[in-house]
Write a structure and sequence with these properties.
With 124 residues, this protein is low in regular secondary structure. The protein folds into 2 domains: 65 residues, no CATH class; 58 residues, no CATH class. It is elongated. Keywords: Chitin-binding, Disulfide bond.
């Protein structure tokens, strides 16, 4: 059986997720090594799609995990330090995957305005 990588797992491979030794997927007997939420689709992360019930997805571990920035952070208003971008998945960074605007570019997700600067920083 071939396992398909879910979008959230793909994003972790692209550097949005904090680097932590451990599996990309989780389950009832395999909590996430980075303390993120784990749902019944074996997706992990810190935003509502990973941590809150919706009737079709059940949640397996650490369902009260908090994101680095955004409404999903501990105080629901944490911004990124150094005015970095807060990605759709609530990770701080400076790359297009954190800072892109899906309305202006061909991105699946957007930077969360109000939680940091939504502008790609080019290397000097």
């Amino acid at each position: 059986m071939v396992s398909r990588i879910q979008p959230e797992s793909y994003l972790s491979l692209k550097g949005i997720m904090a680097p932590v030794d451990g599996p990309l997927q989780c389950g009832p007997d395999q909590p996430c090594k980075d303390d993120s939420c784990c749902n019944s689709l074996e997706n992990r992360g810190f935003i509502e799609i990973h941590c809150k019930g919706n009737g079709t997805v059940t949640y397996l571990s650490n369902c009260d995990a908090k994101a680095m920035c955004s409404k999903d952070s501990k105080d629901s208003k944490t911004t990124c330090g150094l005015n970095l971008c807060c990605s759709y998945y609530s990770w701080c960074g400076t790359e297009e995957i954190h800072c892109g605007d899906k309305d202006q570019e061909d991105y699946d997700t957007s930077c969360q305005k109000g939680y940091g600067k939504c502008e790609v920083v080019s290397p000097v």
